[in-house]
Input
Amino acid sequence: MAVRTLFVALLFAFPALAELKPLEKGKVSFKAVDDQKDVVERYRLEPREFDYQLKPQRDLVVSGIEIYSLTFPSPVKTKYEENNTVHAEYFLPKGKGPFPGVIILDILDGSQIVSRGIATILATQGIAGLCVQMPYYGPRRPADGKVRLLSPDVTQTLERIRQTVLDNRCAVAWLASRPEIDSKKLGIHGTSLGSFMAALTAAAEPRLNNVSLLLGGGGLVDAYWDHPQAKQYLGVLAYFGGDKAGLKKAIAPADPITYAENLKKRNLLMIAASNDDIVPPSAARALWEATGKQKIVWLNATHVGAVFYLFDATDHIVKHFK
Output
């Protein structure tokens, strides 16, 4: 709470950028850069044109960063009107571009504190960051507040994960269209829950050559099968025939290890916690091995305790995207 309060206080200590720059409205075209033959059907996206609005928010004078809010329609239409608009925050370095551009995805709580912090650090190093709100988070959450991205209903969860990936692919098209962004230096970073969504997006979107996963992994059924925190959820096995193989098949569309061959083609950085009590270290190791044993950094921490190593982690992340 103290960190959140400090961030908000600092953010509003700076002048509103809206006083200096006008609202920008425009159109962006999405078109896959390949034939998508290596992308599973659920994550393919047909050519489309969509409107966007880019609204100036804050001018962080000392840090040399301009912050904007971005909205555009989701390519997936749900029965919840709030969820049909994608919301994002754009952290743009001042100075002469073009800059590398990175999609940044948040942790499970969705407060965006972690994402904004990482975006701020990247922007001070000349890397633009776009913090994309995942479905049913923040302003995308319906008024009753009960709908979530993840739920015990596996079918619903898989559909919401699909929307996350397709939203991110449109966000990539928006970044690639910007004159201040180097379209050949696009990437994606995710932390915890965001790391799983980032891996799925990167596997489906070849423009995301640079990929950073913090506190993530793959091979989820194997990793969690004997995990103490998973016991309460094993009741869902009855729905899939009651065995491990059935569960693996059911969640394969949302498991990054399913798309390991595509991730081998990306420049991948993994940062894992050796004492992680939420995402087992075996999951990180499994994904690292399956994706060609690219760079992995181990933090001597638990999942939540990794916050105390955030400066070390972001140093690796900055170097990766530069």
Remarks:
- The domain at 2-321 is CATH 3.40.50.1820 (Rossmann fold).
- The first strand starts at residue 24 and ends at 30.
- DSSP finds nine helices and ten strands in the chain.
- The two ends are 31 Å apart (CA to CA).
